[in-house]
């Protein structure tokens, strides 16, 4: 079996669902259930003996050690993290605790477990750390896309905490020989994406008749990857990745934010037109920019393609259409995640909406 951490969040839940749709190898899912963790994401697995959910912290080395000894997984895939840049600006401490200290304790527990394995079990074991392209910093308009050897230059408390965790993972390989793999992926989108992030926030606000807050001039560029393509990349790296290596994952879909927002609006105009016949884009509102906002990310994923034959299956056009349709079909999910805590965050972050 495999042990997944953070498997009740956006990417982790998609990964667990995809994994169990494709094979019968059981998954132990360790998740703290922070505001971003949601068991409703895994509701379709209710009663499925292949999925064991454990609520807990990756920083609890004793708990992790117990799970490892009890279940003897052949791999651990670490999704657990604080993941939202804007929240890291308002309050970096949780990011330091989970992404750095938590990853350290997780690595220690895994080192102790792996140290006790022998023969084929020891040879086969893998620790796969899921990271982000944001660790590489920001690109200028004409710069080449990030390769795995690009300098690590994180600019936000979130990306700095992820970069620190990547360094720890690397060090555990070099120092202790721990069989690690690291993936650095671009911005994901798709089902179960918490509506604090750009794409789901725009869909949810548009349908609620609320302003669509675009930071600064809206010309910041991100590379977008449909979440299921990220999941397939992780599976590929787990199967065939070379130990100690980093694999960049991306969709070759560089787009300015304003284009993303306009695409979402156009899809909603087509699929769920406003009652007054006006375009959703009329709700766009330019707001104050994010402090230290990275201008451009772009991922060069050729290593993953060359070494492991991975390519994304979705184009941006097909993926974003699927995503908008998913949100339209899951109004109950959206309603449930908009808890009191969610409304508090929106109140704090978007208190002074105009630019
Ligand atoms: P998310 O915020 O949606 O989910 C994170 C999950 O981790 C939640 O279920 C949460 O409850 C859990 N968690 C948080 N702290 C924990 C702790 N201390 N112990 C155990 N569980 C804990 O995040 P996501 O978007 O699914 O991202 C998953 C991973 O992928 C993160 O490591 C993130 O840095 C990375 N990543 C995300 C993106 C993206 O676009 N979302 C892109 C590249 C990489
Ligand atoms: P986000 O989804 O938070 O991901 P990240 O910051 O990790 O890339 O934001 C994606 C881009 O969208 C980023 O450039 C910030 C911008 N953005 C807005 O313009 N308005 C918003 O309300 C949000 C949440 C993000």
The CATH architecture category of the domain at 2-193 and 224-253 and 293-315 equals: 3-Layer(aba) Sandwich
For the record, the CATH class of the domain at 2-193 and 224-253 and 293-315 is Alpha Beta
Radius of gyration, CA atoms, in whole angstroms: 20 Å
Distance between the termini: 50 Å
The unique ligands bound to this protein are: nicotinamide-adenine-dinucleotide, thymidine-5'-diphosphate
Give the low-confidence spans: none
Strand content: 15-25%
CATH homology superfamily of the domain at 2-193 and 224-253 and 293-315: NAD(P)-binding Rossmann-like Domain
Sheet/helix structural class: alpha/beta
The overall strand count is 12
Principal-axis shape equals: globular
Q: CATH fold name of the domain at 2-193 and 224-253 and 293-315, please?
A: Rossmann fold
Can you give the mean pLDDT?
97
Reported for the largest beta sheet, the result is: 7 strands, parallel
Strand order of the largest sheet: 3-2-1-4-5-6-10
| Percent helix range | 40-55%
Task: Annotate the secondary structure layout.
Layout: E1 2-5, H1 10-22, E2 27-31, E3 51-55, H2 61-71, E4 75-78, H3 85-90, H4 93-115, H5 119-124, E5 126-132, H6 157-176, E6 180-185, E7 187-189, H7 198-207, E8 212-215, E9 221-226, H8 227-240, E10 246-249, E11 254-256, H9 257-271, E12 284-287, H10 302-308, H11 316-329, H12 331-337, H13 340-349
Parallel strand pairs: 1-2, 1-4, 2-3, 4-5, 5-6, 6-10, 7-9, 8-12
Antiparallel strand pairs: 9-11
Helix pairs in contact: 1-8, 2-4, 4-6, 7-9, 9-11
This protein binds nicotinamide-adenine-dinucleotide and thymidine-5'-diphosphate.
Nicotinamide-adenine-dinucleotide binds at residues 5-6, 8-12, 31-34, 36-37, 57-59, 79-83, 98, 102, 130-132, 162, 185, 187-188, 194.
């Amino acid at each position: 079996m495999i042990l997944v951490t953070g498997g009740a969040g956006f990417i982790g839940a998609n990964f667990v669902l995809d994994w169990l749709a494709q094979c019968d190898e059981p998954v132990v899912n360790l998740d703290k259930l922070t505001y971003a963790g949601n068991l409703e994401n895994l509701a379709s697995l209710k009663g499925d003996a292949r999925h064991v959910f454990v609520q807990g912290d990756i920083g609890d080395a004793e708990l992790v050690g117990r799970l490892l000894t009890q279940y003897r997984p052949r791999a651990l895939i670490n999704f657990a993290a604080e993941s939202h840049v804007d929240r890291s600006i308002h309050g970096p401490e949780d990011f330091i605790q989970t992404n750095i200290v938590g990853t350290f304790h997780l690595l220690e527990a895994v080192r102790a477990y792996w140290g006790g394995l022998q023969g084929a079990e020891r040879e086969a074991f893998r620790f796969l750390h899921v990271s982000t392209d944001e660790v590489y910093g920001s690109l200028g308009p004409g710069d080449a896309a990030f390769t795995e050897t690009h300098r690590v230059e994180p600019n936000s408390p979130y990306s700095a905490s992820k970069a620190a965790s990547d360094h720890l993972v690397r060090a555990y390989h070099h120092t202790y020989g721990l069989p690690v793999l690291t993936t650095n992926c671009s911005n994901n989108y798709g089902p179960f994406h918490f509506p604090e992030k750009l794409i789901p926030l725009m869909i949810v606000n548009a349908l609620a008749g609320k302003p669509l807050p675009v930071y600064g001039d809206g010309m910041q560029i991100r590379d977008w990857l449909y979440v299921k393509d990220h999941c397939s990349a992780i599976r590929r790296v787990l199967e065939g990745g070379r130990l100690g290596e980093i694999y960049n994952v991306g969709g070759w879909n560089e787009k300015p934010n304003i284009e993303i927002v306009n695409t979402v609006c156009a899809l909603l105009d087509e699929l769920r037109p406003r009652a007054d016949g006006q375009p959703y884009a009329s709700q766009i509102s330019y707001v104050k920019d994010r402090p230290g906002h990275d201008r451009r990310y772009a991922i060069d994923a050729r290593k993953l393609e060359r070494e492991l034959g991975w390519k994304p299956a979705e184009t941006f056009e097909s993926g974003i259409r699927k995503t908008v349709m998913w949100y339209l079909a899951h109004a109950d999910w959206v309603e449930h995640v908009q808890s009191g805590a969610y409304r508090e965050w929106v109140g704090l972050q978007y208190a002074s909406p105009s630019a």
